[in-house]
């Protein structure tokens, strides 16, 4: 027996809402300091049954990947191209400001991901893709400086990646405000390029 279209659409809408509620729940729990929430904690927060969880996601890493993908699709918009012909100080400030907003938005999920990524190739691939995206932005923004570095360009690029990357940001934020951390990244980047 075929279901009427309005019943199918209703079920699809309910399923989409359940998936969204589960993503909201894991993001909230991780943001509140629970780096490895259990399925029961997630379903309680989402207001759904454990069975509903496993109807939509195979595992917590599967849900975490969905959360990372959703949040990245929102916050990667903050990583817009920076004109490579702009003054160096303006490029450094723009890049560091963009990364501040991106890392602040994605930080709690990034802090939690290593707990799960060890056994999940898809999570590792997401992190690799994120690093690649940020690396492309660096290469485009500072293409003239990297080219001028000649044989030292690969070393300079690696230093820029480290200095403006997530791990450095995470360490700075342990004892600094977002504004102070951003200023530290600006200063470190300026020392590399100035």
Q: In oligomeric terms, what are we looking at?
A: single chain
What is the approximate shape?
Answer: elongated
Order of helices and strands, N to C?
Answer: HHHHHHHHHH
Strand content: under 5%
In terms of per-residue confidence, which ranges show pLDDT below 50 for 5 or more consecutive residues?
none
Task: Report the total helices.
Answer: 10
Query: What is the averaged pLDDT score?
Result: 92
Largest sheet: none
Radius of gyration: 20 Å
Q: Label the structural class.
A: mainly alpha
Number of strands: 0
* Percent of residues in helices: over 70%
Q: How many structurally independent domains? A: 2
Q: Could you tell me how far the N terminus lies from the C terminus, measured between alpha carbons in angstroms?
A: 71 Å
């Amino acid at each position: 027996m075929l279901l009427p279209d309005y019943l199918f659409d209703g079920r699809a809408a309910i399923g989409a809402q359940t998936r969204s509620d589960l993503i909201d729940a894991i993001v909230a729990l991780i943001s509140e300091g629970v780096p490895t929430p259990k399925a029961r904690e997630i379903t309680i927060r989402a207001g759904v049954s454990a069975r509903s969880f496993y109807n939509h996601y195979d595992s917590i890493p599967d849900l975490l990947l969905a959360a990372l993908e959703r949040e990245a699709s929102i916050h990667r918009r903050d990583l817009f191209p920076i004109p490579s012909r702009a003054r160096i100080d303006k490029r450094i400030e723009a890049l560091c400001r963009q990364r501040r907003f991106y890392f602040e938005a994605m930080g709690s999920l990034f802090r939690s991901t290593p707990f799960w990524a060890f056994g999940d190739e898809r999570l590792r691939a997401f992190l690799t893709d994120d690093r690649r995206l940020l690396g492309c932005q660096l290469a485009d923004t500072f293409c003239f400086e990297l080219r001028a570095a000649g044989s030292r360009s690969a070393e300079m690029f690696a230093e820029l990646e480290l200095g403006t990357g997530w791990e450095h940001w995470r360490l700075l934020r342990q004892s600094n405000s977002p504004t102070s951390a951003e200023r530290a990244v600006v200063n470190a980047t300026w020392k590399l390029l100035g």
